[in-house]
Amino acid sequence: MLKAHDRNRPNSALRSFLRSEAAGGILLMGAAALAMIVANSPLYDAYHHVLHAETGPVLTEKLGPMTAHLWINDGLMAIFFLLVGLEIKREFMDGRLSTWNQRRLPFIAAACGMAVPAAIYLALVWGDAELTNGWAIPAATDIAFAIGVLALLGSRAPTSLKLFLTTVAIVDDMGAVAIIAVAYTASINTLALGIAAGILLTMYILGKSGVHRLWIYLILAAMLWYAVLLSGVHATIAGVLAATAIPIVKTPGAPDAADSPLHRLEHGITPWVAFLIVPLFGFANAGVPLDGIGLEQVFAPLPLGIAAGLFFGKQIAIFGSVWLAVKFGLASKLRGATWLQIYGVATLCGIGFTMSLFIGALAFPGNPLLIEEAKIGVLLGSLASAVTGYAILRLAKPCDTQEREEIAQSGEIDADGDVERMETR
Protein backbone atom coordinates (compact mmCIF):
# COMPACT_ATOMS: atom_id res chain seq x y z
CA MET A 1 0.00 0.00 0.00
CA LEU A 2 1.39 3.43 -0.94
CA LYS A 3 1.69 5.98 1.78
CA ALA A 4 -0.11 9.32 1.37
CA HIS A 5 3.03 11.21 0.48
CA ASP A 6 3.96 8.52 -2.09
CA ARG A 7 0.66 9.09 -3.93
CA ASN A 8 1.53 12.77 -4.33
CA ARG A 9 4.94 12.12 -5.82
CA PRO A 10 5.56 12.75 -9.53
CA ASN A 11 4.88 9.75 -11.74
CA SER A 12 7.80 8.26 -13.66
CA ALA A 13 8.44 5.28 -15.90
CA LEU A 14 10.63 3.87 -13.15
CA ARG A 15 7.99 4.13 -10.40
CA SER A 16 5.25 2.77 -12.68
CA PHE A 17 7.53 -0.05 -13.77
CA LEU A 18 8.48 -1.14 -10.25
CA ARG A 19 4.91 -0.81 -8.98
CA SER A 20 3.33 -2.82 -11.81
CA GLU A 21 6.12 -5.42 -11.91
CA ALA A 22 5.72 -6.04 -8.17
CA ALA A 23 1.94 -6.48 -8.32
CA GLY A 24 2.14 -8.35 -11.63
CA GLY A 25 4.82 -10.64 -10.23
CA ILE A 26 2.60 -11.64 -7.33
CA LEU A 27 -0.26 -12.26 -9.79
CA LEU A 28 2.11 -14.34 -11.93
CA MET A 29 2.94 -16.51 -8.90
CA GLY A 30 -0.78 -17.11 -8.39
CA ALA A 31 -1.32 -17.92 -12.08
CA ALA A 32 1.54 -20.44 -12.05
CA ALA A 33 0.22 -22.07 -8.87
CA LEU A 34 -3.29 -22.25 -10.36
CA ALA A 35 -1.90 -23.85 -13.54
CA MET A 36 -0.19 -26.55 -11.47
CA ILE A 37 -3.39 -27.20 -9.50
CA VAL A 38 -5.52 -27.46 -12.65
CA ALA A 39 -2.95 -29.66 -14.43
CA ASN A 40 -3.07 -32.12 -11.54
CA SER A 41 -6.82 -32.23 -11.16
CA PRO A 42 -9.76 -33.68 -13.11
CA LEU A 43 -9.81 -30.38 -15.03
CA TYR A 44 -6.57 -31.19 -16.88
CA ASP A 45 -8.25 -32.56 -20.03
CA ALA A 46 -10.40 -29.43 -20.33
CA TYR A 47 -7.33 -27.21 -19.65
CA HIS A 48 -5.33 -28.96 -22.38
CA HIS A 49 -8.24 -28.95 -24.83
CA VAL A 50 -8.96 -25.21 -24.45
CA LEU A 51 -5.30 -24.33 -24.97
CA HIS A 52 -4.69 -26.56 -27.99
CA ALA A 53 -8.04 -26.61 -29.77
CA GLU A 54 -7.86 -25.06 -33.26
CA THR A 55 -9.50 -21.66 -32.92
CA GLY A 56 -8.14 -19.46 -35.67
CA PRO A 57 -6.86 -19.23 -39.24
CA VAL A 58 -3.63 -20.64 -40.67
CA LEU A 59 -1.26 -17.65 -40.56
CA THR A 60 1.77 -19.70 -41.62
CA GLU A 61 2.23 -23.28 -42.77
CA LYS A 62 4.91 -23.71 -40.10
CA LEU A 63 2.48 -23.04 -37.23
CA GLY A 64 -0.60 -24.56 -38.84
CA PRO A 65 -4.07 -23.66 -37.53
CA MET A 66 -3.90 -21.18 -34.69
CA THR A 67 -4.76 -22.28 -31.16
CA ALA A 68 -5.23 -20.33 -27.93
CA HIS A 69 -1.73 -21.46 -26.92
CA LEU A 70 -0.22 -20.13 -30.16
CA TRP A 71 -2.10 -16.83 -29.90
CA ILE A 72 -0.68 -16.38 -26.39
CA ASN A 73 2.91 -17.45 -27.15
CA ASP A 74 3.29 -15.94 -30.62
CA GLY A 75 0.77 -13.08 -30.46
CA LEU A 76 0.29 -11.65 -26.97
CA MET A 77 3.91 -12.32 -26.03
CA ALA A 78 4.96 -10.01 -28.88
CA ILE A 79 3.42 -7.21 -26.78
CA PHE A 80 5.48 -8.44 -23.80
CA PHE A 81 8.59 -8.23 -25.97
CA LEU A 82 7.51 -4.78 -27.16
CA LEU A 83 7.55 -3.67 -23.52
CA VAL A 84 10.96 -5.33 -23.04
CA GLY A 85 12.25 -3.38 -26.04
CA LEU A 86 10.81 -0.10 -24.75
CA GLU A 87 12.47 -0.68 -21.36
CA ILE A 88 15.81 -1.41 -23.02
CA LYS A 89 15.62 1.69 -25.22
CA ARG A 90 14.56 3.92 -22.31
CA GLU A 91 17.40 2.69 -20.13
CA PHE A 92 19.98 3.17 -22.89
CA MET A 93 18.73 6.56 -24.08
CA ASP A 94 17.57 8.21 -20.87
CA GLY A 95 18.14 5.90 -17.92
CA ARG A 96 20.56 3.85 -15.88
CA LEU A 97 22.37 2.46 -18.96
CA SER A 98 22.90 5.78 -20.74
CA THR A 99 26.66 5.95 -20.03
CA TRP A 100 29.40 3.34 -20.16
CA ASN A 101 30.18 3.84 -16.48
CA GLN A 102 26.56 3.02 -15.59
CA ARG A 103 26.51 0.02 -17.92
CA ARG A 104 29.66 -1.62 -16.60
CA LEU A 105 28.35 -3.45 -13.51
CA PRO A 106 24.99 -4.61 -14.97
CA PHE A 107 26.71 -5.83 -18.15
CA ILE A 108 29.37 -7.75 -16.22
CA ALA A 109 26.76 -9.31 -13.93
CA ALA A 110 24.33 -10.14 -16.75
CA ALA A 111 27.02 -11.61 -19.02
CA CYS A 112 28.32 -13.86 -16.23
CA GLY A 113 24.75 -14.62 -15.18
CA MET A 114 24.01 -15.98 -18.64
CA ALA A 115 27.29 -17.78 -19.35
CA VAL A 116 27.72 -19.73 -16.09
CA PRO A 117 24.16 -21.23 -15.97
CA ALA A 118 24.51 -22.23 -19.63
CA ALA A 119 27.88 -23.86 -18.89
CA ILE A 120 26.44 -25.78 -15.91
CA TYR A 121 23.54 -26.96 -18.05
CA LEU A 122 25.85 -28.15 -20.86
CA ALA A 123 28.08 -29.95 -18.35
CA LEU A 124 25.11 -31.87 -16.94
CA VAL A 125 23.63 -32.86 -20.33
CA TRP A 126 27.04 -33.55 -21.89
CA GLY A 127 26.93 -36.35 -24.43
CA ASP A 128 23.24 -35.97 -25.33
CA ALA A 129 23.15 -33.98 -28.55
CA GLU A 130 19.36 -33.69 -28.46
CA LEU A 131 19.46 -31.78 -25.16
CA THR A 132 22.25 -29.33 -25.99
CA ASN A 133 19.75 -27.09 -27.79
CA GLY A 134 18.34 -26.13 -24.39
CA TRP A 135 21.53 -24.40 -23.23
CA ALA A 136 19.87 -20.95 -23.12
CA ILE A 137 16.92 -21.99 -20.92
CA PRO A 138 18.64 -21.30 -17.55
CA ALA A 139 20.23 -18.08 -18.81
CA ALA A 140 17.11 -15.94 -18.29
CA THR A 141 15.77 -13.92 -15.34
CA ASP A 142 12.07 -13.11 -14.83
CA ILE A 143 11.85 -9.46 -13.74
CA ALA A 144 8.18 -9.60 -12.72
CA PHE A 145 8.49 -12.73 -10.58
CA ALA A 146 11.70 -11.53 -8.88
CA ILE A 147 10.37 -8.03 -8.20
CA GLY A 148 7.19 -9.64 -6.86
CA VAL A 149 9.29 -11.53 -4.30
CA LEU A 150 11.12 -8.31 -3.37
CA ALA A 151 7.74 -6.59 -2.92
CA LEU A 152 6.84 -9.17 -0.27
CA LEU A 153 9.90 -8.02 1.70
CA GLY A 154 8.78 -4.38 1.91
CA SER A 155 11.46 -2.06 3.32
CA ARG A 156 13.84 -5.00 3.83
CA ALA A 157 14.64 -4.76 0.12
CA PRO A 158 16.61 -1.54 -0.56
CA THR A 159 15.81 0.44 -3.70
CA SER A 160 19.31 -0.17 -5.05
CA LEU A 161 18.68 -3.94 -5.02
CA LYS A 162 15.43 -3.53 -6.99
CA LEU A 163 17.15 -1.28 -9.52
CA PHE A 164 20.15 -3.60 -9.82
CA LEU A 165 17.91 -6.62 -10.37
CA THR A 166 15.76 -4.89 -13.00
CA THR A 167 18.79 -3.45 -14.81
CA VAL A 168 20.60 -6.81 -14.89
CA ALA A 169 17.39 -8.51 -16.04
CA ILE A 170 16.92 -5.93 -18.82
CA VAL A 171 20.47 -6.57 -20.08
CA ASP A 172 19.71 -10.28 -19.67
CA ASP A 173 16.61 -9.81 -21.85
CA MET A 174 18.79 -8.28 -24.57
CA GLY A 175 20.84 -11.47 -24.61
CA ALA A 176 17.72 -13.64 -24.59
CA VAL A 177 16.24 -11.74 -27.54
CA ALA A 178 19.47 -12.16 -29.51
CA ILE A 179 19.51 -15.89 -28.68
CA ILE A 180 15.89 -16.34 -29.80
CA ALA A 181 16.55 -14.48 -33.05
CA VAL A 182 19.78 -16.32 -33.91
CA ALA A 183 19.89 -19.70 -32.17
CA TYR A 184 16.24 -20.68 -32.53
CA THR A 185 15.57 -19.65 -36.13
CA ALA A 186 15.61 -22.76 -38.34
CA SER A 187 14.89 -21.28 -41.80
CA ILE A 188 14.42 -17.84 -43.32
CA ASN A 189 11.91 -16.56 -45.88
CA THR A 190 14.01 -13.78 -47.44
CA LEU A 191 11.05 -12.05 -49.12
CA ALA A 192 9.12 -11.76 -45.83
CA LEU A 193 12.28 -10.68 -44.03
CA GLY A 194 12.84 -7.98 -46.66
CA ILE A 195 9.27 -6.72 -46.20
CA ALA A 196 9.84 -6.64 -42.43
CA ALA A 197 13.03 -4.63 -42.94
CA GLY A 198 11.11 -2.18 -45.17
CA ILE A 199 8.40 -1.69 -42.54
CA LEU A 200 11.00 -1.14 -39.83
CA LEU A 201 12.87 1.36 -42.04
CA THR A 202 9.60 3.24 -42.59
CA MET A 203 9.11 3.46 -38.82
CA TYR A 204 12.63 4.85 -38.38
CA ILE A 205 12.10 7.44 -41.11
CA LEU A 206 8.83 8.57 -39.51
CA GLY A 207 10.60 8.91 -36.16
CA LYS A 208 13.43 10.97 -37.68
CA SER A 209 10.83 13.12 -39.41
CA GLY A 210 9.27 14.09 -36.08
CA VAL A 211 6.09 12.01 -36.38
CA HIS A 212 4.87 11.32 -32.82
CA ARG A 213 1.39 9.88 -33.43
CA LEU A 214 1.47 6.51 -31.74
CA TRP A 215 -1.37 4.96 -33.75
CA ILE A 216 0.76 5.09 -36.91
CA TYR A 217 3.57 3.16 -35.22
CA LEU A 218 1.15 0.63 -33.74
CA ILE A 219 -0.37 -0.16 -37.17
CA LEU A 220 3.11 -0.57 -38.64
CA ALA A 221 4.14 -2.70 -35.63
CA ALA A 222 1.22 -5.08 -36.31
CA MET A 223 2.30 -5.33 -39.96
CA LEU A 224 5.88 -5.93 -38.82
CA TRP A 225 4.71 -8.73 -36.53
CA TYR A 226 3.03 -10.58 -39.39
CA ALA A 227 6.01 -10.11 -41.73
CA VAL A 228 8.42 -11.44 -39.09
CA LEU A 229 6.05 -14.36 -38.43
CA LEU A 230 6.16 -15.25 -42.14
CA SER A 231 9.95 -14.81 -42.27
CA GLY A 232 10.68 -17.77 -39.99
CA VAL A 233 12.16 -15.63 -37.21
CA HIS A 234 10.07 -15.96 -34.05
CA ALA A 235 7.26 -13.41 -34.27
CA THR A 236 7.88 -11.98 -30.80
CA ILE A 237 11.15 -10.48 -32.04
CA ALA A 238 8.95 -8.00 -33.95
CA GLY A 239 8.00 -6.47 -30.59
CA VAL A 240 11.60 -5.63 -29.74
CA LEU A 241 12.33 -4.36 -33.26
CA ALA A 242 9.24 -2.12 -33.21
CA ALA A 243 10.29 -0.69 -29.83
CA THR A 244 13.63 0.47 -31.24
CA ALA A 245 11.74 2.65 -33.75
CA ILE A 246 9.38 4.35 -31.25
CA PRO A 247 10.57 7.96 -30.77
CA ILE A 248 11.69 9.05 -27.31
CA VAL A 249 11.94 12.58 -25.92
CA LYS A 250 15.01 12.54 -23.67
CA THR A 251 14.88 14.59 -20.48
CA PRO A 252 18.25 14.29 -18.72
CA GLY A 253 18.07 15.73 -15.22
CA ALA A 254 14.26 16.07 -15.34
CA PRO A 255 11.17 13.81 -15.03
CA ASP A 256 9.83 11.91 -18.05
CA ALA A 257 8.42 14.10 -20.83
CA ALA A 258 4.62 13.91 -21.09
CA ASP A 259 4.80 14.10 -24.90
CA SER A 260 7.38 11.32 -25.31
CA PRO A 261 5.82 8.56 -27.50
CA LEU A 262 8.00 5.89 -25.93
CA HIS A 263 7.07 6.83 -22.37
CA ARG A 264 3.38 7.12 -23.27
CA LEU A 265 3.36 3.68 -24.89
CA GLU A 266 5.34 2.14 -22.03
CA HIS A 267 2.95 3.60 -19.44
CA GLY A 268 -0.01 2.47 -21.57
CA ILE A 269 0.90 -1.20 -22.08
CA THR A 270 2.70 -1.93 -18.79
CA PRO A 271 -0.52 -2.72 -16.84
CA TRP A 272 -1.82 -4.95 -19.66
CA VAL A 273 1.45 -6.88 -19.80
CA ALA A 274 1.83 -7.14 -16.01
CA PHE A 275 -1.76 -7.99 -15.14
CA LEU A 276 -2.99 -9.91 -18.19
CA ILE A 277 -0.40 -11.11 -20.70
CA VAL A 278 2.35 -12.45 -18.42
CA PRO A 279 -0.04 -14.15 -15.94
CA LEU A 280 -1.97 -15.63 -18.89
CA PHE A 281 1.30 -16.92 -20.35
CA GLY A 282 2.22 -18.39 -16.97
CA PHE A 283 -1.15 -20.10 -16.65
CA ALA A 284 -0.96 -21.49 -20.21
CA ASN A 285 2.62 -22.75 -19.91
CA ALA A 286 3.29 -23.69 -16.27
CA GLY A 287 0.74 -26.50 -15.94
CA VAL A 288 2.73 -29.74 -15.62
CA PRO A 289 0.98 -33.02 -14.71
CA LEU A 290 2.98 -34.62 -11.89
CA ASP A 291 1.43 -38.06 -12.40
CA GLY A 292 4.24 -40.60 -12.71
CA ILE A 293 6.97 -38.05 -11.97
CA GLY A 294 9.39 -39.28 -9.31
CA LEU A 295 12.98 -38.58 -8.32
CA GLU A 296 14.24 -40.37 -11.45
CA GLN A 297 12.41 -37.89 -13.69
CA VAL A 298 13.32 -34.85 -11.56
CA PHE A 299 17.00 -35.76 -11.62
CA ALA A 300 17.06 -36.57 -15.32
CA PRO A 301 19.74 -34.55 -17.16
CA LEU A 302 17.37 -31.98 -18.73
CA PRO A 303 15.41 -30.79 -15.67
CA LEU A 304 18.49 -31.14 -13.43
CA GLY A 305 20.63 -29.09 -15.82
CA ILE A 306 18.05 -26.31 -15.98
CA ALA A 307 17.36 -26.25 -12.24
CA ALA A 308 21.06 -26.33 -11.33
CA GLY A 309 21.86 -23.63 -13.88
CA LEU A 310 19.16 -21.34 -12.52
CA PHE A 311 19.75 -21.97 -8.81
CA PHE A 312 23.51 -22.43 -8.54
CA GLY A 313 24.70 -20.80 -11.76
CA LYS A 314 22.88 -17.49 -11.37
CA GLN A 315 23.78 -16.82 -7.75
CA ILE A 316 27.42 -17.87 -8.13
CA ALA A 317 27.91 -15.92 -11.35
CA ILE A 318 26.12 -12.70 -10.42
CA PHE A 319 27.31 -12.40 -6.83
CA GLY A 320 30.82 -13.50 -7.78
CA SER A 321 31.06 -11.06 -10.68
CA VAL A 322 29.81 -8.14 -8.55
CA TRP A 323 32.23 -8.97 -5.73
CA LEU A 324 35.17 -9.27 -8.16
CA ALA A 325 34.17 -6.06 -9.98
CA VAL A 326 34.18 -4.15 -6.68
CA LYS A 327 37.37 -5.89 -5.50
CA PHE A 328 39.30 -4.89 -8.63
CA GLY A 329 37.90 -1.35 -8.81
CA LEU A 330 35.72 -1.88 -11.90
CA ALA A 331 32.60 -0.85 -9.97
CA SER A 332 31.43 0.23 -6.53
CA LYS A 333 29.18 -1.53 -4.05
CA LEU A 334 25.40 -0.98 -4.34
CA ARG A 335 24.05 1.95 -2.32
CA GLY A 336 22.56 1.16 1.09
CA ALA A 337 22.98 -2.62 0.74
CA THR A 338 25.08 -5.20 2.57
CA TRP A 339 26.97 -8.01 0.85
CA LEU A 340 24.47 -10.53 2.24
CA GLN A 341 21.60 -8.54 0.70
CA ILE A 342 23.46 -8.44 -2.62
CA TYR A 343 23.87 -12.22 -2.39
CA GLY A 344 20.14 -12.53 -1.72
CA VAL A 345 19.19 -10.55 -4.82
CA ALA A 346 21.75 -12.52 -6.89
CA THR A 347 19.90 -15.67 -5.78
CA LEU A 348 16.56 -14.16 -6.87
CA CYS A 349 18.06 -13.70 -10.36
CA GLY A 350 17.74 -17.49 -10.63
CA ILE A 351 13.99 -17.08 -11.10
CA GLY A 352 13.88 -17.76 -14.83
CA PHE A 353 10.20 -18.59 -15.22
CA THR A 354 8.59 -16.56 -18.07
CA MET A 355 11.58 -16.23 -20.40
CA SER A 356 12.93 -19.68 -19.49
CA LEU A 357 9.57 -21.33 -20.21
CA PHE A 358 9.40 -19.40 -23.47
CA ILE A 359 12.90 -20.47 -24.57
CA GLY A 360 12.17 -24.06 -23.46
CA ALA A 361 9.29 -24.28 -25.92
CA LEU A 362 11.51 -22.95 -28.72
CA ALA A 363 14.43 -25.25 -27.87
CA PHE A 364 12.51 -28.50 -28.38
CA PRO A 365 9.87 -27.87 -31.08
CA GLY A 366 7.67 -30.84 -31.79
CA ASN A 367 8.90 -32.72 -28.72
CA PRO A 368 6.28 -32.30 -25.98
CA LEU A 369 8.06 -34.72 -23.63
CA LEU A 370 11.23 -32.62 -23.55
CA ILE A 371 9.19 -29.41 -23.25
CA GLU A 372 7.44 -30.87 -20.17
CA GLU A 373 10.80 -31.93 -18.68
CA ALA A 374 12.14 -28.42 -19.31
CA LYS A 375 9.12 -26.97 -17.49
CA ILE A 376 9.89 -29.14 -14.46
CA GLY A 377 13.47 -27.84 -14.39
CA VAL A 378 12.37 -24.22 -14.77
CA LEU A 379 9.76 -24.54 -12.01
CA LEU A 380 12.15 -26.27 -9.60
CA GLY A 381 15.05 -23.87 -10.22
CA SER A 382 12.82 -20.80 -10.05
CA LEU A 383 11.05 -21.96 -6.89
CA ALA A 384 14.31 -22.82 -5.12
CA SER A 385 15.78 -19.42 -6.10
CA ALA A 386 12.66 -17.56 -4.94
CA VAL A 387 12.42 -19.28 -1.55
CA THR A 388 16.16 -19.10 -0.83
CA GLY A 389 16.51 -15.50 -2.00
CA TYR A 390 13.50 -14.44 0.06
CA ALA A 391 14.87 -16.19 3.17
CA ILE A 392 18.30 -14.57 2.81
CA LEU A 393 16.85 -11.07 2.40
CA ARG A 394 14.29 -11.60 5.16
CA LEU A 395 17.01 -12.57 7.65
CA ALA A 396 19.72 -10.14 6.48
CA LYS A 397 20.38 -7.14 8.72
CA PRO A 398 19.89 -3.79 6.94
CA CYS A 399 22.89 -1.69 6.01
CA ASP A 400 23.74 1.18 8.39
CA THR A 401 23.28 3.67 5.53
CA GLN A 402 20.06 2.17 4.13
CA GLU A 403 17.62 4.72 5.57
CA ARG A 404 19.72 7.68 4.44
CA GLU A 405 20.19 6.21 0.97
CA GLU A 406 16.45 5.45 0.62
CA ILE A 407 15.59 9.11 1.32
CA ALA A 408 18.26 10.31 -1.11
CA GLN A 409 17.19 7.95 -3.91
CA SER A 410 13.51 8.86 -3.45
CA GLY A 411 14.43 12.52 -3.88
CA GLU A 412 16.43 11.73 -7.02
CA ILE A 413 13.46 9.89 -8.55
CA ASP A 414 11.21 12.88 -7.72
CA ALA A 415 13.63 15.26 -9.43
CA ASP A 416 14.71 13.21 -12.45
CA GLY A 417 12.38 10.22 -12.75
CA ASP A 418 15.32 7.94 -11.92
CA VAL A 419 18.22 7.60 -9.49
CA GLU A 420 21.57 9.27 -10.21
CA ARG A 421 23.44 6.00 -9.68
CA MET A 422 22.98 2.52 -8.19
CA GLU A 423 26.47 2.35 -6.72
CA THR A 424 28.20 4.22 -3.92
CA ARG A 425 30.54 7.01 -4.94
Characterise this structure.
This protein has helices at residues 4-7, 13-39, 44-52, 68-94, 100-124, 143-152, 159-183, 190-208, 214-231, 237-245, 261-285, 295-298, 301-327, 339-348, 353-363, 368-395, 402-416, and strands at residues 54-58, 65-67. With 425 residues, the protein is mainly α. It has a two-stranded antiparallel sheet. The protein starts with a helix and ends in a 9-residue tail after the last helix.
Give me the secondary-structure category: mainly alpha
- β-sheet strand percentage: under 5%
Average pLDDT level: 87
**Distance N to C terminus:** 32 Å
What is the gyration radius calculated from CA atoms?
Answer: 21 Å
Coarse morphology:
globular
Summarize the biggest pleated sheet: 2 strands, antiparallel
Helix content: 55-70%
Count of distinct strands: 2
Name the helix and strand elements from N-terminus to C-terminus, one letter apiece.
HHHEEHHHHHHHHHHHHHH
**pLDDT under 50 segments (min length 5)?**
1-10
Strand order of the largest sheet: 1-2
Please tally the helical runs, counting DSSP H or I stretches of 4 or more residues. 17
Give the helix/strand layout.
Layout lengths: L3 H4 L5 H27 L4 H9 L1 E5 L6 E3 H27 L5 H25 L18 H10 L6 H25 L6 H19 L5 H18 L5 H9 L15 H25 L9 H4 L2 H27 L11 H10 L4 H11 L4 H28 L6 H15 L9
Antiparallel strand pairs: 1-2
Record keyword descriptors for this entry:
425 residues, 17 helices, disordered N terminus, single chain
